[in-house]
Amino acid sequence: MSPRSARLARLSRSVTFSACHRLHSKSLSDEENLQLFGKCNNPNGHGHNYKVVVTVRGEIDPVSGMVMNLTDLKEYMQAAIMEPLDHKNLDKDVPYFSEVVSTTENVAVFIWDSLQKLLPQGILYKVEVHETEQNVVVYKGEEAIVK
Protein backbone atom coordinates (compact mmCIF):
# COMPACT_ATOMS: atom_id res chain seq x y z
CA MET A 1 0.00 0.00 0.00
CA SER A 2 1.51 3.34 -1.04
CA PRO A 3 1.52 6.31 1.36
CA ARG A 4 -1.07 8.91 0.53
CA SER A 5 -0.08 12.51 0.13
CA ALA A 6 -1.50 14.98 2.62
CA ARG A 7 -4.87 16.39 1.67
CA LEU A 8 -5.89 19.98 2.31
CA ALA A 9 -9.45 20.96 3.13
CA ARG A 10 -11.39 24.01 4.22
CA LEU A 11 -13.83 23.85 7.10
CA SER A 12 -16.46 26.53 7.73
CA ARG A 13 -18.76 27.30 10.63
CA SER A 14 -21.28 30.10 10.99
CA VAL A 15 -22.79 32.08 13.85
CA THR A 16 -25.32 34.89 13.98
CA PHE A 17 -25.16 37.85 16.32
CA SER A 18 -27.27 40.97 16.78
CA ALA A 19 -25.72 44.38 17.29
CA CYS A 20 -26.36 48.04 16.63
CA HIS A 21 -24.04 50.76 15.40
CA ARG A 22 -23.84 54.18 13.82
CA LEU A 23 -21.70 54.85 10.78
CA HIS A 24 -19.88 58.03 11.76
CA SER A 25 -16.29 59.16 11.22
CA LYS A 26 -14.71 61.55 13.72
CA SER A 27 -12.58 62.82 10.82
CA LEU A 28 -15.64 64.26 9.05
CA SER A 29 -18.11 67.01 9.91
CA ASP A 30 -21.69 66.12 10.76
CA GLU A 31 -22.74 67.26 7.28
CA GLU A 32 -20.04 65.15 5.60
CA ASN A 33 -21.01 62.12 7.67
CA LEU A 34 -24.66 62.53 6.73
CA GLN A 35 -23.76 62.88 3.06
CA LEU A 36 -21.45 59.83 3.11
CA PHE A 37 -23.45 57.46 5.32
CA GLY A 38 -27.03 58.67 4.81
CA LYS A 39 -29.62 57.03 7.06
CA CYS A 40 -26.89 54.81 8.55
CA ASN A 41 -25.56 57.96 10.25
CA ASN A 42 -28.71 58.27 12.38
CA PRO A 43 -27.56 59.56 15.81
CA ASN A 44 -29.62 56.81 17.48
CA GLY A 45 -27.96 54.11 15.37
CA HIS A 46 -29.52 51.09 13.72
CA GLY A 47 -29.17 47.33 14.09
CA HIS A 48 -28.38 44.19 12.16
CA ASN A 49 -28.52 40.45 12.58
CA TYR A 50 -25.03 39.70 11.32
CA LYS A 51 -24.13 36.25 10.03
CA VAL A 52 -20.44 35.38 10.25
CA VAL A 53 -18.88 32.44 8.40
CA VAL A 54 -15.38 31.51 9.53
CA THR A 55 -13.31 29.23 7.30
CA VAL A 56 -10.15 27.47 8.41
CA ARG A 57 -7.78 25.59 6.12
CA GLY A 58 -5.32 22.83 6.79
CA GLU A 59 -4.24 19.27 6.28
CA ILE A 60 -6.75 16.55 7.04
CA ASP A 61 -5.29 14.72 10.00
CA PRO A 62 -4.86 11.04 9.03
CA VAL A 63 -5.86 9.85 12.51
CA SER A 64 -8.87 12.09 13.30
CA GLY A 65 -9.90 12.78 9.71
CA MET A 66 -10.37 16.46 10.62
CA VAL A 67 -8.78 19.77 9.74
CA MET A 68 -9.85 20.99 13.17
CA ASN A 69 -12.21 19.81 15.85
CA LEU A 70 -15.51 21.66 15.34
CA THR A 71 -16.03 21.85 19.09
CA ASP A 72 -12.79 23.83 19.39
CA LEU A 73 -13.73 26.12 16.48
CA LYS A 74 -17.12 26.74 18.10
CA GLU A 75 -15.42 27.77 21.37
CA TYR A 76 -12.98 30.09 19.57
CA MET A 77 -15.86 31.74 17.70
CA GLN A 78 -17.81 32.15 20.94
CA ALA A 79 -14.85 33.96 22.52
CA ALA A 80 -13.87 36.05 19.47
CA ILE A 81 -17.31 36.92 18.07
CA MET A 82 -20.27 36.23 20.32
CA GLU A 83 -18.91 37.43 23.65
CA PRO A 84 -17.58 40.80 22.47
CA LEU A 85 -20.21 41.59 19.80
CA ASP A 86 -23.60 39.92 20.42
CA HIS A 87 -26.31 42.29 21.67
CA LYS A 88 -23.87 45.16 21.87
CA ASN A 89 -23.70 48.71 20.63
CA LEU A 90 -20.51 48.32 18.61
CA ASP A 91 -19.52 51.97 18.93
CA LYS A 92 -20.07 52.22 22.68
CA ASP A 93 -19.47 48.69 24.00
CA VAL A 94 -16.51 47.52 21.91
CA PRO A 95 -13.36 49.58 22.57
CA TYR A 96 -11.93 48.81 19.09
CA PHE A 97 -14.74 50.82 17.48
CA SER A 98 -14.25 53.92 19.61
CA GLU A 99 -11.64 55.01 17.05
CA VAL A 100 -12.57 52.86 14.03
CA VAL A 101 -15.78 53.35 12.00
CA SER A 102 -17.98 50.29 12.60
CA THR A 103 -18.46 49.39 8.92
CA THR A 104 -18.90 45.74 8.02
CA GLU A 105 -15.39 45.81 6.57
CA ASN A 106 -13.99 46.84 9.93
CA VAL A 107 -16.18 44.31 11.77
CA ALA A 108 -14.60 41.61 9.57
CA VAL A 109 -11.10 42.88 10.42
CA PHE A 110 -11.95 42.93 14.14
CA ILE A 111 -13.19 39.33 13.98
CA TRP A 112 -10.13 38.21 11.98
CA ASP A 113 -7.74 39.81 14.46
CA SER A 114 -9.64 38.33 17.43
CA LEU A 115 -9.63 34.82 15.94
CA GLN A 116 -5.94 35.05 14.99
CA LYS A 117 -5.11 35.39 18.70
CA LEU A 118 -6.94 32.15 19.53
CA LEU A 119 -6.62 29.76 16.58
CA PRO A 120 -3.53 27.69 15.79
CA GLN A 121 -1.18 29.80 13.67
CA GLY A 122 -1.80 29.78 9.92
CA ILE A 123 -5.13 27.94 9.97
CA LEU A 124 -7.53 30.89 9.56
CA TYR A 125 -8.45 31.21 5.87
CA LYS A 126 -11.27 33.76 5.68
CA VAL A 127 -13.98 35.60 7.55
CA GLU A 128 -17.28 36.43 5.83
CA VAL A 129 -19.59 38.93 7.47
CA HIS A 130 -23.14 39.13 6.12
CA GLU A 131 -24.60 42.44 7.26
CA THR A 132 -27.74 41.77 5.22
CA GLU A 133 -28.65 39.16 2.63
CA GLN A 134 -27.37 41.58 -0.01
CA ASN A 135 -24.26 42.99 1.73
CA VAL A 136 -21.35 40.65 2.44
CA VAL A 137 -17.71 41.39 3.26
CA VAL A 138 -14.99 38.77 2.84
CA TYR A 139 -11.68 39.33 4.60
CA LYS A 140 -8.63 37.08 4.31
CA GLY A 141 -6.16 39.03 6.41
CA GLU A 142 -4.69 40.97 3.51
CA GLU A 143 -3.14 44.33 4.07
CA ALA A 144 -2.86 47.09 1.48
CA ILE A 145 0.32 47.27 -0.54
CA VAL A 146 2.16 50.50 0.19
CA LYS A 147 2.86 52.29 -3.09
Q: What's a concise summary of this model?
A:
28% of the residues lie in helices and 28% in strands. The mean pLDDT is 95.
Task: Write a structural description.
Its cofactor is Zn(2+). This protein has four helices and five strands. The protein is an alpha+beta fold. It has a single domain (8-20, 47-139), classed as Tetrahydropterin Synthase, Chain A, CATH 3.30.479. Strands 3-1-2-4-5 form a five-stranded mixed β-sheet. The radius of gyration is 18 Å and the shape is elongated. The N and C termini lie far apart (52 Å). The model has no long low-confidence stretch (mean pLDDT 95).
What's the arrangement of secondary structure elements?
Elements: E1 8-21, H1 30-37, E2 46-59, H2 70-85, E3 88-89, H3 90-93, H4 104-116, E4 124-130, E5 136-139
Parallel strand pairs: 1-3
Antiparallel strand pairs: 1-2, 2-4, 4-5
CATH architecture annotation: 2-Layer Sandwich
Biggest beta sheet attributes: 5 strands, mixed
SS-based class = alpha+beta
User: What distance lies between the first and last C-alpha atoms, to the nearest angstrom?
Assistant: 52 Å
Q: Give, in order, the helices and strands.
A: EHEHEHHEE
Q: Tell me the total number of β-strands.
A: 5
Q: What's the CATH topology label? A: Tetrahydropterin Synthase, Chain A
Keywords: Lyase, Metal-binding, Tetrahydrobiopterin biosynthesis, Zinc
Pathway: Cofactor biosynthesis; tetrahydrobiopterin biosynthesis; tetrahydrobiopterin from 7,8-dihydroneopterin triphosphate: step 1/3
GO molecular function, one term: 6-pyruvoyltetrahydropterin synthase activity
Organism: Loxia leucoptera
